[in-house]
Amino acid sequence: MQNWTENFARMIKCPNCQDSPTIELKADGKFQVFFCTGCLNGFTYPVPAGLAKYYPGGYWIPQGWKGFVKEQVYKLTQKRRQRWIKKYLSSGKILDVGAGEGVFIETMKKQFSVVGIEPPFSKIKNQHIIKIDFLKWQTKQKFDAVVFWESLEHTRVPQKYLEKAYNLLKKGGLVFIEYPVLDCLESKIFGRFWYHLDLPRHLAHLTEKGLGIITAKAGFKKIDSKDVFALEYTLPGFLASLLNISKVKLPKTNLLLLAVPLFIPVLAVELLFYVLHQAPIGIMIARKV
Ligand SMILES: [Zn+2]
């Protein structure tokens, strides 16, 4: 069985660096995660033919009170993203790839001109977001920054997305990538039960080193890379991973009830991960040189 798995793994090519020397299987199941020892990133195999069915309408902002709560939380999370942008830019044009309902755009539009883009199958309601395959998008516009807020991991070939971003940037322009870190401690603890593998929606599984490699290959120079204390992802992520590994099935509303008694211990664990430079979420900023 082991040999068969190894032979099978050898037949599969990494979407980023086609000719990768070794590929290891990381997680088993209907969809598998392979890790490329060439570019040090993971990828999902197989890629489902109809990706759209894995993105229900409520994936972006659900209806009713849940949608309201999610939108408020999203608005709060934009604060750190605004800080990162404003550290480098005081005005200009930003492209938000995977903009969702445009919450980030809404918080930035006073100071910046922001264009949002979503894939064609996206079920968002915001008419101002362009729905098109990013890789096929033809535009004469040039941007001061391209941002991938938790979106690059949804792409099959992140290398190509970074190259496209590079071409759309002005000289000296910046790319911001916020992403789940495949090789963080929490991922190692939960293994294939780690919530942020999010199969098969996450097609790419990035590591800090791996992201450094593919951004450099796209022509960027890394200027910052650090852990993000992103409780809106890590608290529910930890609880969901815990349920996954214990095989307990709870409706999503009960996850909220579970979150109340576990809030303080999980917060402590996430703080520890952050201090140890093992946060499940990371940010990388790179410049077009
Ligand atoms: Zn690779």
CATH class: Alpha Beta
Largest sheet, if any?
Answer: 7 strands, mixed
Q: Which radius of gyration do the C-alpha atoms yield? A: 19 Å
Q: Percent range for helical residues?
A: 25-40%
Beginning-to-end CA distance, first to last residue = 48 Å
The fold-level CATH name is: Rossmann fold
Number of helices: 8
Structural class: alpha/beta
Strand segment tally: 11
Q: Looking at the structure, what is the overall shape?
A: globular
Strand percent estimate: 15-25%
Low-confidence runs of at least 5 consecutive residues? none
CATH architecture: 3-Layer(aba) Sandwich
Order of helices and strands: HEEEHEHEEEHEHEHEHHE
For the residues shown, what is the average pLDDT?
89
Please identify which CATH superfamily we are dealing with. Answer: Vaccinia Virus protein VP39
Structural domain count: 1
Order of strands side by side in the largest beta sheet? 6-5-4-7-8-11-10
Please give the structural blueprint.
Blueprint: H1 2-11, E1 23-27, E2 32-36, E3 42-45, H2 64-88, E4 93-97, H3 103-108, E5 113-118, E6 130-131, E7 143-149, H4 158-168, E8 169-180, H5 185-190, E9 204-205, H6 208-217, E10 220-228, H7 231-246, H8 252-275, E11 281-288
Parallel strand pairs: 4-5, 4-7, 5-6, 7-8
Antiparallel strand pairs: 1-2, 2-3, 3-9, 8-11, 10-11
Helix pairs in contact: 7-8
The structure holds zinc ion (ZN).
